[in-house]
Amino acid sequence: MTEPQPPQTQQQPPTGDAEGLRASSSNGAAPLVPPASGQQSQSRVSAQAMPRDYQYYREVFRGQQMPFAYLDLDLLEENIRLTRDRAGGKRIRIASKSLRSVAIIKHILAAESTFQGIMAFTAREAAYLARQGLDDLLIGYPTWHEEDIATVARATAEGAHITLMVDSLAHVERIETIARRYGVRLPLCLDIDMSVDFPGLHFGVWRSPLRTVEQVRPVIARIMSSPHVWLDGIMGYEAQIAGVGDRYPRQVLKNALVTWLKRRSLREIAARRSALVALIREYAPQVRFVNGGGTGSVHTTRLEDCVSEITVGSAFYGPALFDHYRDFRYQPAAGFAIEIVRRPHPQIYTCLGGGYVASGAAGRDKLPQPYLPEGAQLITTEGAGEVQTPIRYSGSIALSLGDPIFLRHAKAGELCERFTHLLLVRNGTVVDSVTTYRGDGQCFL
After folding, report:
1. Distance separating alpha carbons of residues 94 and 315, to the nearest angstrom
2. Residue range of the domain that includes 309
3. Count of domains in the chain?
4. Up-side HSE of residue 172: CA atoms within 13 Å toward CB?
């Protein structure tokens, strides 16, 4: 099946000293090689000694063609360590949708033994990652189209381990029919709803219809009766904990309400998951994994004994939406730059491009956030534009035509849908460039 190929952003990947990195292949499949332990220590010291301010990044990227996206490896490695420490010994499954670069996924998997397995977001993506040598792939959302399920069946016949997500009898029966046709047994994961209802409020996201023992039992029984599918794991994503900030500036009442709702939710989530895991183990005592959590809930999900692994993605890039949590703060490792091309007012610098808006409910928090120079702001009446973005800035740094404005995307991996490459920075130098999914000619959603 031929994947659609989007038009390519015009970029010139840099050359230079790899500084302990192995250059990626044309499809981004080669992993980054972590530096030796001594180099890691030196990198950590250097990262602390060099302030990540506007002058720093302007010099790092001087002469680069804009727009471009970048990843600061020193800050990425800090986020990797923080994620490992916050997990408290639980296994971490990497959410590919928040990374969207094969090279970066492989780099993180190689960094710590804590990181095992990938949560993909579509069947075609999972099959593509399997072809890049990655394994233990869990598709985080249900798959229905016949050819998508067939793609997984063919990859399974070739030795891949790709687990399909289900939350209904209809899902199970459709997968079983296609698996029978291809003569394979396909592993399934049962998606359990972790949202919580309060009077007048559904706190969470609309995902699975399964939330009680009575609802789950017939689906498990159907899986267990089939010779062509088997129960590999169970997932429950507590989105209202993992994906909702509770420390927004000038929103004291909202922050207090969200904090209270989170605390109330945690008790119900833990009890529901424990009861459903107990039920599942009656049918499948050796179920391979119990998956939960997300970047914003690692510190609470890890406390549940029945959870064997936590899915994390956004933590590694540290996008803008994750600045607003009271219990943790990740480093802003990923960003992008747009070029000042005109100056219609002494305090307004208009840049080329920049309209990289995040998905979700429309709001200002989904706009890219001006990052550097400090104090730069979007214009309320224009926001981030399709072909131009005006930036208001009245600080002390002298800006000229051709200078960059650095921004951060609201979400993590969605930025990679706009760029073919990520420029990799270490110790104040662009050391390499790796492809994104788009750079590999892939477009999955």
Report:
1. 10
2. 75-319
3. 2
4. 22
Contacts of 61 (CB under 8 A, 6+ apart): 68, 70, 337, 404, 423, 430
434 phi/psi in degrees, rounded to 5: -125, 155
* Cβ–Cβ under 8 Å, residues 362 and 381: no
Q: Which of 81-85, 228-232, 246-250 is predicted least confidently? A: 246-250
Q: How many CA atoms lie within 13 A of 441 on its CB side?
A: 6
Distance CA 11, CA 103 (A): 18
Question: Do 299 and 380 lie in a common domain?
Answer: no
| CATH at 119 | 3.20.20.10
Q: Same domain for 61 and 201? A: no
In angstroms, the Cα distances linking 347 to 95, 341, 375 are: 40, 14, 12
Q: Say what the pLDDT of residue 12 is.
A: 40
CATH number for position 68: 2.40.37.20
Residue 21 pLDDT grade (very low, low, confident, very high; cuts 50, 70, 90): very low
- Residue 236 forms part of a structural domain: yes
- Last residue within a domain, chosen from 319, 348, 368: 319
d(CA 71, CA 331): 11
User: 245-276, pLDDT tens digit by residue?
Assistant: 666 777 777 777 677 677 777 788 888 999 99
Helix (H) or strand (E) holding 104, with range, is helix 102-111
H-assigned helices in 209-331: 213-224, 239-242, 252-283, 298-301, 314-317
In angstroms, the CA 308 to CA 90 distance is 6
* Helix 146-157 × helix 169-182 angle, to 10°: 50
Distance, in Å, from the CA atom of 159 to the CA atom of 278, rounded to the nearest integer, reads 31
Helices (H), 142-246: 146-157, 169-182, 213-224, 239-242
Shared domain for 123 and 54, answered yes or no, is: no
Distance CA 129, CA 369 (A): 31
> CA-to-CA distance for 109 and 124, rounded, in angstroms?
21
Q: What is the pTM of this model?
A: 0.87
Residue 253 lies in a domain: yes
How do strand 229-236 and strand 201-203 relate by DSSP bridges?
A: unpaired
Residue 91 falls inside a structural domain: yes
Whether residues 131 and 210 share a domain: the answer is yes
- Residue 246's pLDDT is 62
